[in-house]
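Reply to dn_fold:

You asked what the input looked like. This is it:
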Amino acid sequence: MIKLNNIIKKYIQGQVTVTVLNKLKLVINNKETIGIIGPSGSGKSTLLNIIALLENPTFGDIEISGIDCNVLKAEEKVNFRKKNIGFIFQNNQLLEDFSVEENIALPLIMDGYSYSKSISKANDYLELLGIFERKKFKPGLLSGGEQQRVAIARALIKDPSILLADEPTGSLDDKNTEVVFSFINKLAKEKKIITIFATHNLNLIKQLDKSFLMKGGNLIDFKKS
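and this is what came back:
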């Protein structure tokens, strides 16, 4: 379970203070899939970064799986994130010096797993995603949709309890958008992962358990139609 209470996030730009999140409250139960919509600059990415413990709120309380994240030290946050959270970035952040299978396996390798076991698990995901034949390619040789599937596999390979997806289909065409989103949603349900999508796509969030509109630094229930 994720509990956010009275989250405030302010940035100082020169002599101006900008409030991005304003006393935001959110409770997400285990296994739920959540959609957050809103225009660029509304605070969606900031909220995901705070949940991922990549940014600290200016004020407010964060509790994840019963742990008070406000009291965690920097190293403890890193370890908590590595163990519990998978993050899919809009620009996928793949490493061009490594092959597709190595990009996916890298989180396991960095955690001390053997190279062979890490690559084997990476290949399992490549099979699931339908791009096994691309495993030796460098990311630059893949299409945008294929690259994003690799990024998804990398985020999921450590079996996180929480998956955060920041505009994961923002740069894809309609066909790849549906393929990528359906895969994430299906796997999240099968593995009982708390999943939070930040997106502009109204059609996608209709498939999720709950959806919210980010407005004025707060989350408003978004009624599906």
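The mean pLDDT is 89.
Hope that clears it up.
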